[in-house]
Structure formats: structure tokens, C-alpha cells
Amino acid sequence: MGRYVARRLLLTIPVLIGASFLIFAMVYALPGDPIRALAGDRPLPAAVQAALRAEYNLDDPLLVQYGKYVLGLVQGDFGTDFSGRPVLQTISERLPVTATLTGVAIVFEIIIGIAAGVLAGLRRGSFFDNLVLVTTTLLVSIPVLVLGFVSQYVFGVRLGVVPVAGISEGLYSYLLPGLILAAISLAYVARLTRTSLADSLRADYVRTARAKGLDRRTVVVRHTLRNSLIPVVTFIGADIGSLLGGAIITESVFNIPGLGRAVFESVQRQEGAVVVGVITLLVFFFIFFNLVVDVLYAVLDPRIRYE
Amino acid sequence: MTSPVHGSAGSHAAGTRTDDATATSSPRTGAPVLEVEDLRVEFRSRGPVVNAVNGVSYAIAPGETMAILGESGCGKSVSAQAIMGILDVPPAHITGAIRFEGRDMLQMGAEDQRKIRGPGVSMIFQDALSALNPVYSVGDQIGEMFRAHRGTSKKEAKDRAVELMDRVRIPAARQRVDDYPHQFSGGMRQRVMIAMALALDPKVLIADEPTTALDVTVQAQVMDLLKDLQRDTGMGLILITHDLGVVNEVADRVAVMYAGKVVETGTIDDVFTRPAHPYTRGLMSSIPVLDGKGQRLNPIVGAPPSLARIPPGCSFHPRCPMARRGDGGRPDCTSDVPPLREVAAGRRAACHYSEELLHG
After folding, report:
1. pLDDT tens per residue across span A237-253
2. Nearest chain B Cα to A303, which residue?
3. Which residue of A has its CA nearest to B115?
4. Smallest Cα distance from A178 to chain B, Å
5. Strand-strand pairing, B65-69 and B121-124
6. Which of A108, B12, B265, B268 is the most buried (most CB within 10 A)?
């Protein structure tokens, strides 16, 4: 297992290099001139523009630019944005915000998703089961933007139970954005739990558990739930990566100063250093959580062994 | 039920309730520990009603081995699962009586019924790999019997599990107690199942095709083990199988099932050498003979009926070489249901024309 984890961690290095280069190239390929856009209607003096270009290596060919960027990275320098702020500072300020948002979303995903799935799976065909089926179908078919704006209007503006936007009210202000960010994943988790539980309930070993004279609670919790939650846990782990991606939209809708919004704004300003730095970090998290899932999978299911 | 006139060769202790079940008494007489009377199981869900078990009666005495023989889909497993109380009700609908030590399990509350599973009646299944939970160690699953029924501590339950694994002859039990089911061979897994089922010294063990999924050599070992364990514990053994060889080796009595009914019961010798039902005779003559090289096999024509559409009259009549329309006041196989009746001492069969088979 240790060797397996080490090998997987080593493999992340080429993936990170490849990912960062791709993102770098895409920012490079964006149309328009970031320096001119920076200046707006009143053009900067040619000398200033040239100085900025030189500072950010904007006149170099793609490979040279990327090479200089990587050279800086190796020395711990993530570069600066056009206003001279170090990218590392942006990341360290905004990462906790996104981490909180994602964390809240995962908690919703686990609690609501699994609870709804378990109750529906145990009482298939019941009113609650149908309610879960209809609700989850709605959740996955409504675009997050619509869901976000509508809930913002209903709960924030009309009912006033949560802040409309921003993070001025601490953890409380993350509730609605967290729920919206979790919405689609939550629906998938509920459905997956329901199906998986129903499958497990039909399994031979559950029949054995009943034949052993175990009480219903033990049969369901010990011999059904644990087995049926294995695919759910792996889904949630892999889903953390997509939540980080989804945060880009949610943070913009709810005006939350996290990494997602940093990416969104930097793409508009064509600030390569910020975009590449943040996205590469997200890619790393994605790989990392996938590794965690694989390890967790082996812990949960003794049949899985990595050699 | 049926009149007590049927009274049988050896029944004495259970005389208070002489009925179909006790009538076919065992060679090892004694009060039956488990009696099944007119057991019927229907499945009612969408679609036609499936009559999986249609009036099965038998009794099993301590130390006795009864084989329930039949093709796939004849209701033999369903009847066993009904006895264990592990069918989902609904869609299953169970009627009749299942008396364990004189108390009808179908009349008990769910909690009382549950407490019989394990220490009273226990069951092992065909495919031990899928019947064992893949995420718990075998020691955990065996020990669970003690923890759940007797509140034994984790540590002691594990020690007991090791003892049981020794008893079912799993080598290096102490080292293997923390291994998982997938780390065992098929035969060893079935031994784990057996250890688990025998943990609380059940009075009756139901073995549902215990050797079907195993290699032939391993089959013999597992059957030997079951026989030895039965001799040591004096439990009644209900052996569900379609393997005539297994039945011949270990069973005292046999009940042959067809389309959800018992069509013939009797001692192994009687049933195997002189079948009293055309279906049993068909089964026996379909066994390949060792010196019959080059001869064609002798299968029963046709296929067993769907349990959703059981033929009227004798359910075997469409495949029966002896089936006849009633004429001259004789029973009509296509419309008159043959009762399971005593056709010779200690033998019962459900055929209008058993006597012809036996004597003609």
C-alpha cells in the first residue's frame, strides 16, 4: 500500500506539469492584449506598456514564457498579478474561503444526500421514495446559475433568512451557497445511495444475516449500509474535485471572494500567472482526493488490495 | 388436516397431534423437533400469483437426516426459507404451520421468531462466497452469533469462532480467523458457513444445496463433515438438493418435491429402489449408469411447469407416462388432485396409481 501511494504521488508530477502547460497555453491563446485592456480608454504611454510587457515576459514566445514561469515556481515564486500582488498571497487569502464553501457543500452532500437515499432505499415505492426521485431529477436538470439566483432571491431577498451575498456573516453566510454548490452532487449521492442500498438488501449475505437471527437494526446497519455506502463514499471523494470547479460559478453568483472568483476575474484580465497558479492547485487537489478515495476504497472493502 | 387414521408405524410421543407430518415417521423415532404442516407460499406482486409451495408437510426428528429432492424451481428452497422466516412478507404470503418444538413459528411475534433462528433452526446456503458478507472477517461473522444472541464480548466471541473453525476442520484456525471470505477456497468458505450455522448448537440445520457450488472431491469432504457434526450434536438435518448421489449417501428419508408439492416420501432404500410416484421413477431412471456406455440417457420428457401456471389435477400429468383420463369411475389425472397418501408402510405418495407402480 505504501509503495502504491508513493507511486501515485510521483505520478502527479508529470500530470501537474502537463496541466499547467495546457492552461498556460490557453491563457496565451486568448485574443486581445491584457496590457491595453488594463489601461482602458486612455492608452498608457508606449514606454510604460513596453516596461510592463518586459516585466511579465509578454513578448516572449509561449515556450520561453512557460519556461520562465516554471523556473520561478521551482524557486517558490508563483509570480505576481498585474497590480504587483504575489499570486501566492492571493491563494493563501482565498483558499480558506473556498475550502470553507466546499466543506459546507460536502457536509450537505453527505448528510442530506445519504439520509435521503437511505430512507428512500429502505422504503422503495413509498411517498418519500417518490419525493426523492422527483426532487433529485429536478435538481440535476436545473442549471446551477438558475438555482443560485432563484434561491438567492427567495431566501435572501424575500424571506431574508440568509445573507444575499458575501461572507460578512461568517459561517452562516456559507449555508445557501454551500447548499447550491452541493445541489447536483447531493442529488447524485441520494440516487446512488438509494440504488446501492436496494441492491445490497437483495444480497445473499443480507439473507444470511437474517437467517442468523440478527435483529433488523443489525441487519440493516451492519450488514447492508456499510456495503452499500462503499460506492457512495468513493463518489463523494471523487466529487470533491468537481465541487472545487463548481465553486467558480457559485462564488461568482454569491459574490464570495474565493479561489473560484479569483480564477474568473483573472481569466477576464488575462492574468496568466493567477489562472495557471490557481488551476494547477485545483488540479493537484483533484488528483490528491482521487488518491484518498482509492486508499479509502481499500480500507472499506477488504477485497481491494493494491500491490 | 387429514384424519388421524393415517397413524403410522413409529409415532408415539407426538401422538397428541397425529397428522400428515408425523405419519411418515423416521427410523430413529422420537418427538419431531420440527414439523411443517400444509405449508403454502404464494408470491403476490405485479403479474400472476406464483404458487411456490402448495401444501408441504413433513417432520424431522433429532438426529435424523431428511433430504428434500427436486429440480430447480420446485419450491424446495422457498419452503426452507419460509421455515427460516427470511422471506419478505409481502410479497410472500405464507400459510400453514411450522412447529418448532411444538410452537407454531407462524403464530409467533417477529421477535420470538428471530430468537429461534440460530439456536433453534439454522441454515447454510449454496454459494458461500455470496452468502458471507465480504467486508467482515470470517471470525467476526462467526462470532457475531455469540455476540448477537448471548451478548458475548468481542474477544470471547472471537475465541469461540476459532474453536468452531477448528471443529469444522479449517487448518490454522487461529491464524485465519481475521481473514476475509474471499481469501478462502470454496470448500473452506462452506466450512465457515457451517461453523457459523452451528455456533449456537441448533436443533435443526437446513442445508440448501450445500455442495452444489463445490468440486466433487470437496463435496464429499463437506458432506462427511456435516454427517460427523450431526452425529456429535444430534441435530436434525434437512438437506435440500437435486443431487441424487448426495441424498443416497447421507439421508435417512427423502421427500421428493414437484411443482411446490411433496409427491413422495419414504426411506431412501424404498424410494430409490421402488419409487411409488412416476416422477420419482423418472428421476431415478434419468441417472446415467456406469456400465451403460453408449446408451442414451433417459430424461423425463418436457419441462417443469411455471409456478405461476401449475397444471390442474396432478401437476405432473403433462409429463407423466402413466397419466390417464378417468374412465369407469377411476380418478382422472388431468382434473383430480391426488392426495399425499400412505401407499405402503412408512411410505407416502401423491399419485392415483402408485399401487400399479409398486406392484405391477
Report:
1. 888 888 888 888 888 88
2. B182
3. A213
4. 33
5. unpaired
6. B265
